[in-house]
Design brief:
The chain is built from five helices and four strands; from the N terminus they run H-E-E-E-H-H-H-H-E. It is 57% helix and 16% strand.
Length: 171
């Protein structure tokens, strides 16, 4: 017959078999925690490089647009007379807006043609047409459209982004 094991020996065997299980549960928990922490760090790093760096590089790439203004000399023209009115005059000063120095120089090189086109437009207007705000806005749009057209001997349109009156007197 077999000898019954001591209680002490049975107890030692139980501890030996249980101890590794507890240790493996702790190891498993620690490994899962490290894995989750590693995923969080990797996700934060990916977010930083993909989102934050991309938006900051786009902001650096989109430089502010510098606009250059080309001032024009004073225009003094006779306005088209309306029925029964005495002769009226318009005195206006303008600045033209262009996106680069190259475009500014192109306008300066063609200044006689620029002034000629503007004078023809201004002298064709009556005082009632240019006195209101809407009339001035329409006049500005007409001047911009006229100046964007190619000049004599050129096939390229002018790069003009705006025209602004700095003085406007109807008398």
């Amino acid at each position: 017959m077999a000898i019954a094991p001591n209680k002490k020996e049975a107890k030692d065997e139980a501890e030996v078999t249980r101890a590794p299980r507890r240790k493996s549960n702790k190891n498993l928990f620690v490994m899962i925690a490290i894995g989750v922490l590693a995923l969080l760090v990797a996700g934060a790093g990916a977010y930083y490089f993909l989102v934050y760096r991309a938006s900051s590089s786009e902001a650096a790439e989109s430089k502010p647009v510098i606009q250059i203004f080309v001032p024009l000399e004073v225009f003094t023209v006779n306005l088209r007379p309306e029925s029964g009115d005495s002769q009226q005059y318009l005195q206006a000063t303008m600045s033209l807006q262009v996106p680069s120095e190259k475009d500014a120089q192109a306008l300066k090189d063609r200044m006689p043609e620029v002034r000629n086109r503007i004078l023809f437009i201004l002298s064709a207007k009556s005082a009632s047409e240019v006195s209101s705000v809407d009339g001035k806005v329409n006049l500005t749009a007409e001047i911009i459209n006229s100046l964007k057209k190619p000049f004599m001997g050129s096939e390229t349109e002018q790069n003009l982004t705006g025209a602004y009156f700095t003085s406007f007197i109807v008398q």
